[in-house]
Specification:
binds flavin-adenine dinucleotide; four-stranded mixed β-sheet; six-stranded antiparallel β-sheet; about 25% helix; alpha/beta; Uridine Diphospho-n-acetylenolpyruvylglucosamine Reductase, domain 3; Uridine Diphospho-n-acetylenolpyruvylglucosamine Reductase, domain 2; globular
C-alpha cells in the first residue's frame, strides 16, 4: 500500500477525536490494594523512596474528565527499578495490581491511569539525550539516544545545538517520547518520513514480565514492532534511538485558502506527491471566524473571506499549510516548487505494517497495493469549564462518539487514532484482521495483562490463573 496518490479519498481515513475539558466528571472510588504488601516485601524496588502515595497528578490527564486514583506512584531511577517491580508483580499470585507508564499525561480518556494500581512517572528516569552526529565521510544517519520519559521539545532543543532535528514530529512537542511512540506520532511531515514510529532505530523495553530487552528491526524484532503503536500493552519504553536529520537554515511557510473542497483536496494530494520538494503539509477547514482565532498561529485580520464568513454562516473555507526547507540562507522560490511540470511522482511508503498500529483496511474493491491516500482527520474541540456543565460535556462526548461510530462504519471504514473503545469487544473490532496478532503479542510480552489498564483492551489476570 502506498501512502500517496490521487485516487481513493475518504475510504481510507484515520480519525483523531479529541476533547479537552478540565471538568471533574467521573471519579472511581479507591479500594484497598496490596500495595503495602508489595512495599513490605523484601524486594529491592530501587529504594523505598521510589514509591509515593501522592497521586493527584497521576489520577488526571489532559482531558480532565476521567479520574482514576492509583494506589501509588512509582518514580524509577533506572530501567532496572521498573524491571524489578514488573517481575515481582508478574510472579506474585496474590497481587493483582496493574501498572501504567505515564509520560506527559496528555491522554484524553485516562489511558495513562491505573485504577487502584501503580502509575510509573517516566519523567523521573535520569534524563538522557545523547546526540550522534555523523563524522566527516561517515555513512548513515545521525540519531539520538533518548530516555522514554523525555519530551520531544527537549530532544529538539538538544539536537538543534548540533544543527540537527528529529525527522518526524508531532504538531505539539510537549509530549513524551514513550507516549507518542505508543500511538504513532503524526504531523505535517508524516507524508514524507512516516509517523514517528517509523523513525526509530532501536528501543530498550521492560516487558510485562520484567525483562529488559534491547530490540530493533534485527534484534528481538517482534517486541520492537509490537511496542511501536502498541498502546503501552507490551512493555515500557525506557530508551529510544530516534533518527535525526540536518535542521534547515530557513523555512518558507505558506497558507493557501480555498472555497472549493475538490480543489483543496486536489492540491493537497499534489503537494504530498512532491516529498523531495515539500517538507510539511497539513490542511484544515475554516468553519467560522472562531476557527481562525483559535488557531495557534494568528491570521491577518484583512483576509478577504472573513467578511464573507460573518455574512453567511453556511460558508466554509479550506486552508492548506505547507512548508519548504532550505539548508542554505537563500530565497526560496515557491513558484519553482509548485510548478506541476517539475513534479516527480515519487511515492513513499511510510507506514510499517509490522507495527501494532491499525490502518483503514483496503476495501474489497481496491487492491491492497493501490496507492491509497490516508487522510488523518482531526476533530479538535475544547470545552470551557466555566460554561460547560456536566450536561453540556455529556452532549459533546455523545456527539464525538456518534461521529466516531459513523466514521468507523463499514461504509467509511475509518480507524480511530488515540481511540477509546468502551469494551474489549469493540477493541477487537477496531483491530479487525490485526486482532489475532495483537492478542498473540500480548500473551507473549505481558501475559498477565499488567500494563496500561487505562486503555481497557485486556483484563488483568493473576499468575495462578
Ligand atoms: C495538546 C495535544 C496535542 C497533541 N498533538 C498531537 C500531534 O500533533 N500528533 C499526534 O500524533 N498526537 C498528538 N497528540 C496526542 C498524543 O500524541 C498522545 O496523547 C500521546 O499519548 C501523548 O503522549 P504522553 O507522553 O502525554 O502520553 P501519556 O498520556 O502519558 O500516555 C499515553 C499512553 O502511552 C503509555 N505510555 C506512556 N509512556 C510510555 C512508555 N514510556 N512506554 C510505554 N507506554 C507508555 C501510557 O501508559 C498510555 O497508555 C496531542 C495531544 C494533546 C493533548
Amino acid at each position: 500500500m502506498e501512502f500517496a496518490s490521487f485516487y481513493t479519498r475518504f475510504n481510507a481515513l484515520l480519525i483523531f477525536l479529541t476533547l479537552f475539558s478540565p471538568c471533574k466528571f467521573i471519579r472511581i472510588p479507591i479500594e484497598t490494594v496490596s500495595l503495602n504488601y508489595i512495599k513490605a516485601t523484601s524486594m529491592d524496588f530501587g529504594g523505598p523512596s521510589n514509591f509515593h502515595e501522592s497521586t493527584s497528578t497521576a489520577s488526571v490527564d489532559f482531558g480532565g474528565f476521567i479520574f482514576n486514583i492509583p494506589s501509588a506512584v512509582f518514580r524509577p531511577k533506572s530501567s532496572r527499578d521498573i524491571a524489578v517491580l514488573l517481575s515481582f508483580l508478574s510472579a506474585s499470585s496474590s497481587a493483582k495490581v496493574s501498572v501504567a507508564a505515564r509520560g506527559a499525561g496528555h491522554s484524553i480518556h485516562g489511558q495513562a491511569q491505573a485504577p487502584d494500581g501503580i502509575v510509573i512517572e517516566m519523567d523521573t528516569l535520569p534524563s538522557l539525550i545523547e546526540i550522534h552526529k555523523l563524522m566527516d565521510g561517515e555513512e548513515g544517519f545521525p540519531y539520538a539516544d533518548v530516555s522514554g520519559g523525555a519530551l520531544w521539545i527537549e530532544l529538539l532543543e538538544e539536537s538543534l545545538k548540533l544543527g540537527l532535528a528529529p525527522r518526524s514530529w508531532t504538531d505539539y512537542l510537549y509530549l513524551s517520547i514513550g507516549g507518542t511512540l505508543s500511538n504513532a506520532g503524526i504531523s505535517g511531515q508524516t507524508f514524507k518520513y512516516g509517523p514517528q514510529i517509523t523513525n526509530v532505530l532501536q528501543l530498550e523495553v521492560v516487558t510485562g514480565k520484567g525483562e529488559i530487552v534491547t530490540c530493533s528491526p534485527t534484534q528481538s524484532a517482534e517486541l520492537f514492532y509490537a511496542v511501536l503503536g502498541g498502546l503501552g500493552q507490551f512493555g515500557i519504553i525506557t530508551r529510544a534511538r530516534i533518527l535525526l536529520q540536518d535542521a534547515p537554515q530557513q523555512v518558507k511557510w505558506i497558507r493557501l485558502f480555498y472555497d472549493d473542497f475538490q480543489t483543496f483536496i486536489k492540491d493537497q494530494e499534489l503537494l504530498i506527491l512532491m516529498p523531495e520538494k515539500v517538507d510539511y503539509v497539513e490542511g484544515f477547514i475554516v468553519l467560522n471566524e472562531n476557527s481562525l482565532h483559535s488557531s495557534s498561529m494568528a491570521f491577518p485580520n484583512q483576509l478577504e473571506f472573513i467578511s464573507e464568513l460573518r455574512k453567511d454562516s453556511s460558508k466554509v473555507y479550506y486552508c492548506i499549510e505547507f512548508a519548504v526547507h532550505s539548508h542554505k540562507i537563500e530565497e526560496i522560490k515557491i513558484e519553482q516548487v509548485i510548478s506541476t511540470n517539475s513534479v516527480t511522482l515519487k511515492q513513499v511508503k511510510p507506514w510499517d505494517m509490522n507495527t501494532s498500529v491499525v490502518l483503514p483496511e483496503a476495501s474489497s474493491t481496491t487492491e491492497v497495493d493501490d496507492g491509497r491516500v490516508i487522510y488523518v482527520v482531526g476533530l479538535l474541540q475544547s470545552a470551557n469549564p466555566s460554561r460547560c456543565t456536566k450536561t453540556c460535556l455529556t452532549d459533546l462526548l455523545e456527539r464525538h462518539r456518534h461521529v466516531a461510530e459513523m466514521a468507523a462504519s463499514d461504509r467509511i471504514g475509518a480507524k480511530q487514532y488515540l481511540g477509546h473503545h468502551p469494551s474489549p469487544d469493540q477493541w477487537r473490532k477496531h483491530f479487525g484482521s490485526k486482532w489475532d496478532r495483537f492478542a498473540d503479542r500480548k500473551s507473549r510480552f505481558d501475559p498477565l495483562a499488567l500494563l496500561a489498564p487505562g486503555q481497557g483492551i485486556f483484563v488483568r489476570s493473576s499468575a495462578s490463573t
